[in-house]
Structures are given as structure tokens and as C-alpha cells.
Amino acid sequence: MGQPVERESGDRSSGERASGGAEQPQLPPGQRLQRGWPVTHYGPVPKFRSERWEFRVFGATADGEKHCWTHEEFTALPYATVVADLHCVTKYSMLGAEWGGIPARTILEIAPPAPGVTHVMVWAEYGYSSNLRLADFASERTIFATHKDGELLTAEHGFPLRLVVPHLYAWKGPKWVRGVEYMTADRRGFWEERGYHNIGDPWREQRYSYQEEPGDGPEL
Ligand SMILES: Nc1nc2c(c(=O)[nH]1)N[C@H]1C(S)=C(S)[C@@H](COP(=O)(O)O)O[C@H]1N2
Ligand SMILES: [Mo]
């Protein structure tokens, strides 16, 4: 297998981009505005089969148990919305989407981590993963989205569930997410092992692992 690359396909239909710069103060440095919503991911789009789907919280849970929800149970959890932008590290941003779903905080409340937990690994279909500091995951704006702008996510955008972490680059938000692992030490996820920054703050332009400073992430 060669080096994986983010593949973008699909809706560039209206393809224009705004001019950026001073009139776009909400764009992080180096990003350009994308109209429409491209599809970007590595690998195939998984097929959803509700009878095989479960959401799991495992690893260092407070009670030492694994917690599982069926699709029906998970989507019955209290629904909330967050308006947030999506910043792809390949330099386009989509602004002002309304994401609807289950806040990450709800999961932390109903399946709390053990006291020593510092990071989480968010797991998706086909083994895609991304690591987050517990504080990033616990942000009141981090949400497991089932909907965007009031409509169910489409398959290519992550149906039935994707994570949205508004203050980090979009690779930190797995589509087709299936669970969360509570960790007592940091470990790199899929892209973080392959050259992306361990933290991924777009406002600090933390794109690549070579930009990391001591303490930003585990040894590569
Ligand atoms: N499972 C999975 N989730 C993923 C990815 C991926 O490759 N696999 N790519 C990420 C990246 S790099 C981006 S930019 C966004 C793109 O989301 P979109 O296709 O809905 O625009 O999904 C993120 N979530
Ligand atoms: Mo991306």
C-alpha cells in the first residue's frame, strides 16, 4: 500500500470561492472558502446495517465496563445542535453548518471516564481513528452528528454518525464513527500517525506533525 492521501470527490458543483482575506475574518490562516460540500475521506464509504451497528465506549471507563448502544438507543439520546465550520487541512473550509446530534458531553456523563483518562481515540468503520485530548472531546461544542442543516447525513458524509469537533481540523472528526476509547496516555490516530499534527488547531495552523512542539504529541 502506498502513502494514503485524502481523496476529495463529488460536489464542487458551484465551485466558486470567495476572495478570502480581510472580509473573511472567520477563516483560519491559509484556508479558502468552499461553496458546496465536497466529500473527503480515505477509503470506501461503508454500508450501514442497523442490526450490525453498535456504538461502544470502552477502555478506561469509570466502572471498568464497556458500554454499548444500538442504533435505536443511541439516536434516542437527547438531541442538540451546534453551528460550526468545517476546516479541511487540504485548505478548504465550509462555514456555518448546523450539526444536529448527541453532544460528546452526554456520552461523558452517561459513560464517564476513569479519573486517569487524558485522551480519547474516536473509532470509525474500517479502523479509521483520530485521537483527541479529553478537553477537546469534552468541549461543549463537540457533537456526534446525525444531521446537517436539519437533514440526515448522507452516506458519503458519514451516515449514520460522525463526530464534529468545531475547533479542530476536520480529520479529527471521523465519519461513520462507531465508538470511543478512553485512554490514560496519548496515542496517534490514523492521520496523526501519517504526518498530520497531533493536535490540529486550524487557528494555529497545526497541519503537519513536523510542526509539533515538545509536548504536542507522542514520539513518532
Ligand atoms: N472515517 C473517516 N472519517 C473522516 C475521514 C476519513 O478519511 N475517514 N476524513 C476526514 C477529513 S480529512 C475530512 S476533511 C472530513 C470531510 O468530511 P466531508 O466529506 O463530510 O466533507 O471528514 C473527516 N472524517
Ligand atoms: Mo480533510
From TrEMBL:
Signal peptide: none
Bias kind Basic and acidic residues: ranges: 1-15
InterPro entries registered for this protein in UniProt: OxRdtase_Mopterin-bd_dom (IPR000572), OxRdtase_Mopterin-bd_sf (IPR036374)
Region listing for Disordered, in residue ranges: 1-38
A Pfam family of this chain: Oxidored_molyb
Domain Oxidoreductase molybdopterin-binding: 43-191
Superkingdom, taxonomy of origin: Bacteria
PANTHER family cross-referenced by the UniProt entry: OXIDOREDUCTASE MOLYBDOPTERIN-BINDING DOMAIN-CONTAINING PROTEIN (PTHR43032:SF4), PROTEIN-METHIONINE-SULFOXIDE REDUCTASE (PTHR43032)
Protein name per Swiss-Prot or TrEMBL: Sulfite oxidase-like oxidoreductase
Organism: Streptomyces acidicola
Organismal lineage: Bacteria, Bacillati, Actinomycetota, Actinomycetes, Kitasatosporales
